[in-house]
């Protein structure tokens, strides 16, 4: 098996159910369901747990501004209870554009908020009565009113160095998007420093990079272009965040070309800036053999449980199914 799980971006709900059933048939371990400013993820996660038996259903991601940590703990415990423990919490900061312009909340102190979020959720899911005196959250006297407690693992979509250290110190998993196989080993250095600070081992953190993935034996060129589209979209449209991350891994010229291409000619222009070298470093695409080689490179660089990010926005249903069956 090449990947441990899948995420699909924004397919229709029924298509998501179909692809998840196929992933479960293939023996994949997890499905990660995103949430941005469209469909809310919790009803979808609930339906997925009802329709599956073995695969873990995971939030990918709950941003740390739209919900309180208490609400996340209640939601996670409820979802885990309905799915015999098959729920994992994926957390992240999202970005200022979404948090401030959609949710209307100030994007302040993301690192401190992430730390307090994790500590509070872990305590509540352990069944503890919480008395928490943080810099952001002050809580007193409450525990989850549940018959059973599920200590759901917490994964954090951390990119910056300090945030990666925080993952190593407090979280159960690291869930980065668009980290190249050429840079994953170095990026893990910050996670290890955090683990050392927390008297933990790197083995205690599940390294779960999301890898742009599209596979086709019959049309590998199309598969590569779909993965290229996904990389171009994130670097070209998501503010400075992913462009700066790409630059930090040695792809600064490419990031500039992608963003300039987006400004000039939208998605098509951005795709023109994604070089084959960048595609090979960030993605796993082409023929099944080519994708297998890419996943092996990620695993050699330190990935424990890579997640295939399938570009459902661009790929048709046939190639999505072929990708899943080749994982």
TrEMBL record:
Q: Domain named Luciferase-like: which ranges?
A: 14-304
Signal peptide: which range, if any?
Answer: none
Protein name as annotated: LLM class flavin-dependent oxidoreductase
Instruction: List, alphabetically, the SUPFAM superfamilies matched.
Output: Bacterial luciferase-like (SSF51679)
Keywords, alphabetical: Oxidoreductase
Lineage runs: Archaea, Methanobacteriati, Methanobacteriota, Stenosarchaea group, Halobacteria
* Entry-linked InterPro entries: F420-G6PD/mer, Luciferase-like_dom, Luciferase-like_sf
List the Gene Ontology MF annotations in alphabetical order. Answer: oxidoreductase activity, acting on paired donors, with incorporation or reduction of molecular oxygen
């Amino acid at each position: 098996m090449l990947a441990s799980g899948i995420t699909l971006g924004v397919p229709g709900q029924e298509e998501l159910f179909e692809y998840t059933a196929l992933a479960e048939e293939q023996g994949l371990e997890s499905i990660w369901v995103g949430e941005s400013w469209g469909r809310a993820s919790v009803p979808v996660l609930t339906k997925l747990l009802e329709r599956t038996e073995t695969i873990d259903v995971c939030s990918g991601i709950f941003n740390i501004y739209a919900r309180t940590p208490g609400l996340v703990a209640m939601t996670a415990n409820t979802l885990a209870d309905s799915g015999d423990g098959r729920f994992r919490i994926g957390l992240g900061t999202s970005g200022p554009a979404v948090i401030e312009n959609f949710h209307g909340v100030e994007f302040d102190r993301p690192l401190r908020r992430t730390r307090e979020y994790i500590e509070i959720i872990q305590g509540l899911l352990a069944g503890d009565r919480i008395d928490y005196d943080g810099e952001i959250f002050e809580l007193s006297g409450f525990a989850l009113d549940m018959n059973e407690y599920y200590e759901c693992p917490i994964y954090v979509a951390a990119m910056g160095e300090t945030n990666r250290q925080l993952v190593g110190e407090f979280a159960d998993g690291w869930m980065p998007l668009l980290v190249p196989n050429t840079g994953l080993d170095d990026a893990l250095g910050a996670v290890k420093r955090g683990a050392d600070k927390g008297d933990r081992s790197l083995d205690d953190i599940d390294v779960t990079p999301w890898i742009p993935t599209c596979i086709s034996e019959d049309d590998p060129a199309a598969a590569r272009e779909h993965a290229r589209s996904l990389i171009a979209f994130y670097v070209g449209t998501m503010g400075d965040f992913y462009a700066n991350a790409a630059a930090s891994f040695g792809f600064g010229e490419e990031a500039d070309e992608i963003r300039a291409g987006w400004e000039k000619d939208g998605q098509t222009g951005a795709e023109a800036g994604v070089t084959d070298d960048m595609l090979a470093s960030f993605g796993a695409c082409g023929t099944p053999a080519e994708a297998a080689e890419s996943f092996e490179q990620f695993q050699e660089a330190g990935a424990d449980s890579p997640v295939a990010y399938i570009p459902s926005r661009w790929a048709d249903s046939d190639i999505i199914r072929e990708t899943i069956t080749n994982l």
